[in-house]
């Protein structure tokens, strides 16, 4: 039906083509400037937090374990959008005002930390206890064994699920539009409001997200294939 309408109205078809062409660069710029940078920064800090939380979970220090469990429960039990709203719109009520982009980084990093910590914890626990015992037998401390033996092996195990989390984060950054971050979806909203063609613009944004995820999925497959060479069959 839509295609029939376009064939019946060449002027509108030309207008849609013009809008698609003029909106492409702003959308790509939003993706490169904010979407990808927000993803990379948030995932970096989130991964550091995830490792700390995972280590706290497997430690024998009960207060740390309880705090880590509570943190993971809160993050996994509340919507990401609500977390962003609490940081950006809620904190100013107690005198803490944070700009949109840093608010998004904080929100996404905390969210990644909560979910990725379970991936990291499972990867560490998957390493046979014999590895710990072997490290101890040659005089390594707990910290040395963790750094030199356990974490490198756990990293290899955790790469596939962490890669999936990274790709999911690319799409989740669209929620940052709700706290005024000028990432790609926010740009799409602005263009749609100005052109009154939301279907076209949102489909174009969706295609760009799709292409980015396809590229990342290809990189993930190549990385996993490379790592498989070093896994004993």
What does this 3D model show about the protein?
- By secondary structure, the protein is mainly α.
- The chain has one domain (2-228): MetI-like (MetI-like fold).
- Helices cover 82% and strands 0% of the residues.
- The protein has nine helices and no strands.
- The chain has helices spanning 2-8, 10-58, 62-77, 80-90, 100-125, 129-137, 142-172, 184-195, 198-228.
- Helix 3 (62-77) packs across helix 5 and helix 8 (184-195) packs antiparallel against helix 9 (198-228).
- The longest helix is centred in the first third of the chain and has 49 residues, at 10-58.
- It is elongated.
- The N and C termini lie far apart (55 Å).
- The model has no long low-confidence stretch (mean pLDDT 88).
How is the secondary structure organized here?
Elements: H1 2-8, H2 10-58, H3 62-77, H4 80-90, H5 100-125, H6 129-137, H7 142-172, H8 184-195, H9 198-228
Helix pairs in contact: 2-3, 2-5, 2-8, 2-9, 3-5, 4-5, 5-7, 6-7, 7-9, 8-9
Describe the structure in brief.
The protein is mainly alpha-helical. It contains 9 helices and no strands.
Relevant terms:
mainly alpha; 0% strand; single chain; MetI-like fold; elongated; 233 residues
Largest sheet: number of strands, sense, barrel closure: none
Helix content: over 70%
- CA-atom Rg in angstroms: 22 Å
The average pLDDT value, as a whole number, equals 88
Please tell me the CATH architecture by its name.
Answer: Orthogonal Bundle
Number of helices: 9
CATH fold-type name: MetI-like fold
Q: What is the H/E string? A: HHHHHHHHH
Family: Belongs to the binding-protein-dependent transport system permease family.
Subcellular location: Cell membrane
InterPro entries: AA_ABC_transptr_permease_3TM (IPR010065), ArtM/GltK/GlnP/TcyL/YhdX-like (IPR043429), MetI-like (IPR000515), MetI-like_sf (IPR035906)
Membrane topology: Multi-pass membrane protein
């Amino acid at each position: 039906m839509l295609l029939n309408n376009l064939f019946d109205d060449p002027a509108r078809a030309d207008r849609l083509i013009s809008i698609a062409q003029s909106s492409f660069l702003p959308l790509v710029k939003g993706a490169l400037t904010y979407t990808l940078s927000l993803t990379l920064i948030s995932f970096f800090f989130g991964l550091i937090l995830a490792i700390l939380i995972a280590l706290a979970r497997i430690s024998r220090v009960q207060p740390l374990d309880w705090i880590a469990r509570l943190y993971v429960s809160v993050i996994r039990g509340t919507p990401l959008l609500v977390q962003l709203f609490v940081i950006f719109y809620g904190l100013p009520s107690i005198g803490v005002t944070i700009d949109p982009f840093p608010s998004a980084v904080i929100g996404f990093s905390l969210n990644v930390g909560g979910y990725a910590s379970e991936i990291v914890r499972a990867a560490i626990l998957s390493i046979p206890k014999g590895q710990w015992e072997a490290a101890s037998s040659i005089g390594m401390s707990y910290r040395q064994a963790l750094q030199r033996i356990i974490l490198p092996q756990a990293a290899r195990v955790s790469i596939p699920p962490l890669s999936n989390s990274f790709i999911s984060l690319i799409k989740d950054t669209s929620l940052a539009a709700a706290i005024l971050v000028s990432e790609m979806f926010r740009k799409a909203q602005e263009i749609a409001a100005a052109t009154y063609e939301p279907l076209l613009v949102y489909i174009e944004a969706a295609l760009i997200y799709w292409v980015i995820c396809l590229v990342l999925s290809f990189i993930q497959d190549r990385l996993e294939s490379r790592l498989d060479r070093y896994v004993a069959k």
